[in-house]
């Protein structure tokens, strides 16, 4: 089984294509099966290539992080490999701040919600000066 050993790791960036490869040898030729431990493979974004040797997930998000197991099985036995996947993300907007026009003495609220992995810090500045 390639990769060798029982576990390996993979880091991918949010929005990219995640490719995991599992190549098994045996006679009779093993059948490969992929599972996500503790979850489901995303139904509309998951594709298999090369007779299921390659698992392809398009437009990955942080929710796609986790352990993916490839199992190779034939009539004589089975072997498996677990790939621990971490999806990293540059900061992105959940709620982007919008322009606010206020009259003197009027109150207003600016909302700024961002996410990423690692989690971004948020700073507020007025005319380039930290508040």
UniProtKB/TrEMBL annotation:
Query: Which key words are in the record?
Result: Cell membrane, Disulfide bond, Glycoprotein, Immunoglobulin domain, Membrane, Repeat, Signal
User: Residue limits of the Ig-like domain?
Assistant: 3-86, 91-131
Q: Would the keyword Thylakoid be found if you checked this record's keyword annotation?
A: no
* PROSITE patterns named in the record: IG_LIKE
Question: Do you know which InterPro entries this protein is assigned to?
Answer: Ig-like_dom, Ig-like_dom_sf, Ig-like_fold, Ig_I-set, Ig_sub, Ig_sub2, Neural/epithelial_adhesion
Q: Which domain of life is it from?
A: Eukaryota
Q: Name one GO cellular component term.
A: plasma membrane
* Localisation: Cell membrane
The record ties this protein, via Gene3D superfamilies, to:
Immunoglobulins
Q: Which Pfam families match?
A: I-set
- Family annotation (PANTHER family): CTX-RELATED TYPE I TRANSMEMBRANE PROTEIN (PTHR12231), NEURAL CELL ADHESION MOLECULE L1-LIKE PROTEIN (PTHR12231:SF257)
Q: Spell out the protein name for this chain.
A: NRCAM protein
